[in-house]
Design a protein that fits this description.
homohexamer; about 70 residues; Macrophage Migration Inhibitory Factor; two-stranded parallel ribbon; about 40% helix
Chain lengths: ~70, ~70, ~70, ~70, ~70, ~70
């Protein structure tokens, strides 16, 4: 009965990508730990780039520098 | 000083239902562990059905099959 | 398919109390939101009092003052 | 490689305040534990006041009483 | 810069299995969202079976019934 | 009523360092958002280096390479 929480920045993640994350994370638990997929939960949190920081800097600003 | 986090799918949970979850979860900690309600926090996260998976499938799709 | 996480300090919570928290939290989701208990998860985290702070103070120290 | 999650109510937190929280939390880990800021993550969750409870009451209602 | 949290019951998960979960979850984010693995974190929480409930029952008890 | 969760690897964090993290995180919320410290919680999770991965590698292995 694993629970997987995936946090990513909310940069246009599509429904298909979310479905792929859910399918892939569930399969990972089946493959590695032989868990029952029926009781495996995956929850994806999309976080605004204003609300995520790395190295003390807001990701929104980091993205501007990378552009 | 307990902290309770309740994650549910965002399927039209009303203000009254949220208030009932908060009241009920707080009372549970009082009843079972004799905790002080004044320092008991409850946080409810409503998760889009596109972002929640069970059994490797997206809940949005599961709901269509159930309908 | 709710997920409930309960964080409490690790002050001798018994197996019976944990079972009561799990049962009560699951029932709360059934009562308020008509959720299916079979796909309701409850996870209890017991946190050392050295690792929990309120009002800027470590709970271990707060407990000494209360004693 | 610390991970810091800050949950606050969504009461008009500005971009500047978010940047200050990210900078301050990262610096705290550097100062106290000598962590590398480059691999320190900070994620801020803004929670609707309807979804946060203290003392068994919804924060939205507590705010009305305080007003 | 994704963050992945995997919660499983603490039933003799080996170091090799943990390494496989970390490698697999990181690769999933690379494959699906083209994320940079260098800034992808994976944290595994092993939860005592006394502290995990499904369907209102403690997993410790569920395991006895399955045995 | 903020809630702050700090996850770090369990590499001999002292009581004094934990107290400093709790004090500093609480003060940060007071300084930036004018929050009431009395209802600010800080919870520190110490994660085994076998259970934390960065860049697809287990931190235990990364530490050996750094040594």
């Amino acid at each position: 009965m694993p629970y997987v929480n995936i946090k990513v920045t909310d940069e246009q993640v599509t429904k298909e990508q979310k479905a792929a994350l859910i399918k892939g994370a569930t399969q990972l638990l089946v493959d590695v730990l032989n868990k029952n997929p029926a009781t495996t939960f995956v929850v994806i949190d999309e976080v605004n780039t204003d609300n995520w920081g790395v190295g003390g800097e807001v990701v929104t600003e980091l993205r501007k520098k990378q552009a």
